[in-house]
Design goal:
single chain, 143 residues, alpha+beta, four-stranded mixed beta sheet, globular
Length: 143
C-alpha cells in the first residue's frame, strides 16, 4: 500500500500543471472513479501531509459514488493568512465573486470549503490547492 501511495504521489506531482482534458486522463489512469469516495481523498491528507498533493488530484477525480451535488458552499478563510496563501487569495479575489452559490466567510480557521446539501455537510481543507483546482472542484461539485 505504501509503495502504491508513493507511486501515485510521484505521478500526481508530475501532473500538477495539466489542463482539464489531461487531468481526466490521469483520473482514469490512477483512480477508479466509480468507487472513489471523496472521503478517501480526505483520509490521504489526514494520514500523511506528504500525500496532500495526491489528495488534491484525488479530489478532482472523486465522486463516482457520491450523493447528489451540493446546493451551496462556504469558503472559510482567515484574512490574515491570505498573504501566505497567494493561490487561495487569488481565488477569493478573482473567482469567488463569480460563483453565486459560494459564500466567503472570514473566520480564524484554515482555508476550508464547507460543502452543503440537505442534512449533510462536508469540510474540505484547501490551503495547499491552486486557484484553478478550487474553481474546478466547485464547478464539479455545486449544482
Amino acid at each position: 500500500m505504501r509503495v502504491m501511495c508513493v507511486v501515485l504521489a510521484l505521478a500526481a506531482a508530475a501532473t500538477a500543471a495539466l489542463d482539464a482534458k489531461e487531468q481526466k486522463k490521469i483520473c482514469d489512469t490512477l483512480f477508479e472513479q466509480e468507487s472513489l469516495s471523496c472521503k478517501t481523498c480526505d483520509l490521504m491528507e489526514e494520514v500523511s501531509p506528504e500525500l496532500s498533493e495526491l489528495a488534491v488530484h484525488c479530489r478532482t477525480c472523486c465522486g463516482g459514488n457520491e450523493e447528489a451535488k451540493y446546493k451551496s458552499a462556504t469558503l472559510e478563510v482567515d484574512q490574515r493568512t491570505l498573504a501566505w496563501l497567494p493561490e487561495v487569495a487569488a481565488f477569493v479575489k478573482e473567482h469567488a465573486p463569480q460563483l453565486p452559490k459560494l459564500k466567503v466567510s472570514y473566520t480564524t480557521s484554515r482555508p476550508t470549503l464547507v460543502m452543503k446539501r440537505p442534512n449533510h455537510t462536508d469540510r474540505v481543507a484547501i490551503a495547499s490547492w491552486k486557484q484553478q483546482q478550487i474553481l474546478d472542484y466547485l464547478k464539479a461539485k455545486l449544482e
